[in-house]
Amino acid sequence: MLIGLLSDTHIHWPDQGFYPQIKEALRGVDLILHAGDIWIPWVLDELESVAPVLAARGDDDLDTDIGDDKRVAKRHNLSLDGLSVWVTHIKPRYGLINPSEHTYSSIFGQQEQEVGDPPDVVVFGHTHYAEIEDYKGTLLVNPGSPTLPTYLPKLGTIGLLDISDGRAEARIVQLE
């Protein structure tokens, strides 16, 4: 399963446009996960012309703009090809937030057994900086921003997550 990852599109209105390079880089994915700061549902509609979309609500995603779009949740806790994948906006700092229980798990600490198994993958955004990190067996992926990398309005990055044979591998793609 190939999953497209993006975050922090920060598109204000449809007239602002949607870089065609984003859709081109996502061509052939089975699913798209957006890690928040969408701003308007039109962005998700554009992405959905490529593949099904799920999104986490970002700190800049106001209810008045996103509304009750069924694709958007504060967090998603998914099972994809046998792996657990969490989608959230902000990188877990003091422990991973368990989306189903809305509690902090202590998988980065000592008592992980109290909240169940840690996820295999966490997709997040918020910083506008792409990163891939393996932390205690959890793959943390921030795809950066395709439209506002390092907070500059230019072509940025997306991520691709390949899940097969019970393993997940991620890579960052620079849009050109």
Commentary on this structure:
The protein has 176 residues and is mainly β. The protein has one domain: Metallo-dependent phosphatases (Purple Acid Phosphatase, chain A, domain 2, 4-Layer Sandwich), CATH 3.60.21.10. The chain has three helices and 13 strands; from the N terminus they run βαβαβαββββββββββ. It has helices spanning 20-26, 41-48, 63-66; strands at residues 2-6, 31-34, 53-56, 72-73, 76-80, 83-87, 97-98, 103-104, 121-123, 131-135, 138-142, 157-164, 167-174. The strands form three sheets. The chain has a six-stranded mixed sheet, covered by helices on one side. A five-stranded mixed sheet has the order 5-6-9-11-10, with no helix packed on it. The longest helix has 8 residues, at 41-48. Mean pLDDT is 86; it is low at 99-115.
Level of helix content?
A: 10-25%
Strand coverage percent:
25-35%
Q: How many individual helices?
A: 3
Shape: globular
Mean pLDDT: 86
Tell me the CATH superfamily.
Metallo-dependent phosphatases
Distance between the termini: 24 Å
Q: Identify the strand order in the major beta sheet.
A: 4-3-2-1-12-13
Number of strands: 13
Give the C-alpha Rg. 15 Å
Number of domains: 1
Largest sheet: 6 strands, mixed
CATH architecture field: 4-Layer Sandwich
Elements, N to C (H/E): EHEHEHEEEEEEEEEE
Q: Unreliable runs, pLDDT <50, ≥5 residues?
A: 99-115
The CATH topology: Purple Acid Phosphatase, chain A, domain 2
Structural class: mainly beta
Please report the first level of CATH classification, the CATH class: Alpha Beta
